[in-house]
Amino acid sequence: MNRRPLILFVVPFALGLVSCQGDTTARRAVSEVTIVSPSSTVLTTTRGNLGLVARVSGSGGGALTDRQVIWTSSDTSVARVASTGTAGSSVSPVGPGTVSITATSEGKSGSLTLTVRRPLVADVKIMPLATSAFFIGDDVTLEVVVTDEEGVVLTDRAVTWTSSDTGVAVLLSAVGNSAIVHTRSAGSVTITATVEKRQASVSFRVRAACSDFPYDDTGCEP
């Protein structure tokens, strides 16, 4: 008879202790948020999305993989982020400038500074002509292809066209990456396209329109 009150008293106390311990160990507080990827902090405006990864750490130093992470950009005119709510996200370059990308979880934040720049011109090519000889008075259309260091075609760069001999052929008009050259007299000429510090050239002959006679580089000869 004396043992029953003791058993009834000990069991609730033990259950309460287990419950208390469960509450204190179920969820650790976030102590630090660190952006661990990407390793490169320089982007070009022509590059696509770049992956972002944040590490959320608990008070004991271990990673917390079940926490919501909010991603933000300090300047959306430079770069935008996809705020997915998870430790993984992505950033998209928009325009040149410097921007801070921040990952926040439960009041703790980590940031990464990115620089977005215009891509450098890596290569300039003039599309091959269908023929290497034209008649006096012809209009020759030229197309230049400009690419950056990743092989992306650039259409926003100024192209300067020059003729090695304006007496033979002269620039008639230029729009974007295209130009029209007008032939004026017989001879040989080289047309050069310059984009920033890169160049490409194409050469052709101009002859008189007298197909009934043989000709050389200076025009028709009877």
Topology overview:
Blueprint: H1 3-25, E1 30-37, E2 42-44, E3 50-58, E4 70-73, E5 79-81, E6 88-93, E7 97-105, E8 108-117, E9 121-126, E10 133-135, E11 139-148, E12 153-154, E13 160-163, E14 169-175, E15 178-183, E16 187-195, E17 198-207, E18 215-216, E19 219-220
Parallel strand pairs: 2-8, 10-17
Antiparallel strand pairs: 1-3, 3-6, 4-7, 5-6, 7-8, 9-11, 11-12, 11-15, 13-16, 14-15, 16-17, 18-19
Describe this structure in words.
The structure is a single chain. The chain starts with a helix and ends with a strand. 10% of the residues lie in helices and 51% in strands. It contains one helix and 19 strands. The longest helix is centred in the first third of the chain and has 23 residues, at 3-25. The strands form five sheets. Strands 9, 11, 12, 14 and 15 form a five-stranded antiparallel sheet that branches. Strands 1-3-6-5 form a four-stranded antiparallel sheet, with no helix packed on it. Strands 2-8-7-4 form a four-stranded mixed sheet, with no helix packed on it. The model is unreliable at 6-25 (pLDDT under 50). It has one helix at residues 3-25; strands at residues 30-37, 42-44, 50-58, 70-73, 79-81, 88-93, 97-105, 108-117, 121-126, 133-135, 139-148, 153-154, 160-163, 169-175, 178-183, 187-195, 198-207, 215-216, 219-220. Strand 11 and strand 12 form a beta hairpin. The chain has 222 residues and is mainly β. It is rod-shaped, with a radius of gyration of 35 Å.
Task: Offer a concise description of the structure.
The protein has 222 residues and is mainly β. The chain has one helix at 3-25, and strands at residues 30-37, 42-44, 50-58, 70-73, 79-81, 88-93, 97-105, 108-117, 121-126, 133-135, 139-148, 153-154, 160-163, 169-175, 178-183, 187-195, 198-207, 215-216, 219-220.
